[in-house]
Amino acid sequence: MSISPPDRTVDQPVHLPVDLPVDLPVDRRSPASPRRREGVLALSRAFDLLGPPGAGLIVAVLGQGPSDSAQLRNRLRGISDVELAIRLHDLIAAGLVKRIPATDASHGGRYTLDEAGKALVIPLAGLLVWAEDHL
């Protein structure tokens, strides 16, 4: 069984199978259009936000429903209390997560996804499928 090389040359643009707001050329010397730069910057901001350990997993867990800090810690083994607090703070500041205040004094409140966080669940599910298949 032989595998034939793809029908495109190195100088041709890469066309991704999904509709991204950016068409990334293989030739990095070509000037970037303003739209492509905006798309790359947006993707970079997303990776900056979701890149720290636990950040994407917090969104995935909250995609299954609201949780308090203890429930998140139990689901996210290996993340310290300090890391969890920092990640939650960053995700709240980014508008992905919101905190629901406790109704009684003994409970610290719960966390849930905001609209932007809910919109992120589907792309995270796609990333999960890719990771299971390729990593």
Automatic annotation (TrEMBL):
Keywords, comma-separated and alphabetical: DNA-binding, Transcription, Transcription regulation
Highest taxon above the source species: Bacteria
HTH hxlR-type domain segment(s): 33-135
Family annotation (Pfam families): HxlR (PF01638)
InterPro entries associated with the record: HTH_HxlR, WH-like_DNA-bd_sf, WH_DNA-bd_sf
Record-given protein name: Winged helix-turn-helix transcriptional regulator
UniProt source species: Streptomyces heilongjiangensis
Upper taxonomic lineage: Bacteria, Bacillati, Actinomycetota, Actinomycetes, Kitasatosporales
